[in-house]
Amino acid sequence: MPNKPNHWGYKMFVLVGENPQYGFCTDIVLDLSETVPRLMNHKIYFDNYCTNIRLQVELKRLGIYAVGTVRSNRLPDLVMKTKQELTREGRGAMDYRIAEVDGVELCATRWYGNNVVNRLSTLHGCDNTDLAKRWSSK
């Protein structure tokens, strides 16, 4: 991993489910969240390794809110501004879409700072954005 402070090492992800139902990452997160109480407004945050639409839909059905960064290829059929369009608009540019999947409302946001970041959420909506001052070396 050339961009990490420790360039060398091993990473092992070993969790095996007995009956795969939704896919590797979704099944693992659902198994790990079995102890989270249902319908009590608990929230789970995760990175783009696990985030996908099916996982967020299944967690919401269990009464658990979810927020995570998401890879662009895990948002199929969702037309949003491209990286080039957001870059042209400048730092702080964003685009969002609200989608309903199996009766669950999802908010997908694409934001441009130093790079493009995608977020998928069943907790936070897409409206009410605020301006924020960010530090820049310029």
From TrEMBL:
One Pfam match: DDE_Tnp_1_7
Q: Where is the PiggyBac transposable element-derived protein domain?
A: 20-135
- Which InterPro entries does this entry report, sorted A to Z? PGBD
Record-given protein name? PiggyBac transposable element-derived protein domain-containing protein
Q: Which organism is it from?
A: Rotaria socialis
Q: What is this organism's lineage? A: Eukaryota, Metazoa, Spiralia, Gnathifera, Rotifera
